[in-house]
Protein: Aminoglycoside 3'-phosphotransferase
Organism: Povalibacter uvarum
Amino acid sequence: MPRLVWTNERGGTTFRIGDRFLKWNPRNTGIDLDAERLRLEWAVQYHSVPRVLGAGADEEAQWLITSALRGSGAVTEAWIGRPLEAARAIGRGLRLLHDALPVAECPFQWAVQARVGHRVATEELRVPPVDKLVVCHGDPCSPNTIIADDGSPAGHVDMGSLGVADRWADLAVASMNLDYNYGAGWEDAFFDAYGIRKDEYRVGYYRFLWDNEDSIGVSSVVTRELGLLGLR
């Protein structure tokens, strides 16, 4: 029997059916499951992500059928009570993803200009100098890391925004989301597991972008808000 495992705020649902997952999403949500299909089919060559088993669409909705990865999501009951291990697995898992996916071969972009739809001139976006280009997950929130029973990272799911960007675009969001899922105090473990020191400037910038990318469109607003954050 299908078991509902996730409902997003836009009306999309995810069901588990045996060793498969079925995603169903209404057309009017702004989420494109075909974009995720293309990214999964590319990423599976290099990293542990679900295999695409089927996909389709009609006038009302899209759907995507994928295999299940071994392990459990980082915010399932098994890991909510073990936040230190979860934070380490998320950090290590993100490093494995960044190291595995080849930038030169990636046909997808998640750079700042692409995310805001080129609605703002590049110079107005005040983008920090690139630290290191990687293929970013694009939605590195805690639930999208799968953890094996032994606490090691087992792979990633929900790859619909995957693309090339500075690694801090992922790091800023992944570290921020730890507080939401586990409470405060786990960022150091995350950054240690990834193998990097926290860059306050880049973290501030990419967290601001994450919270505001859908509304960015007036350059004066961007400049003013970044100035208030000390990011000008």
The chain is about 35% helix and 20% strand. The first strand starts at residue 3 and ends at 7. The chain has a mean pLDDT of 90.
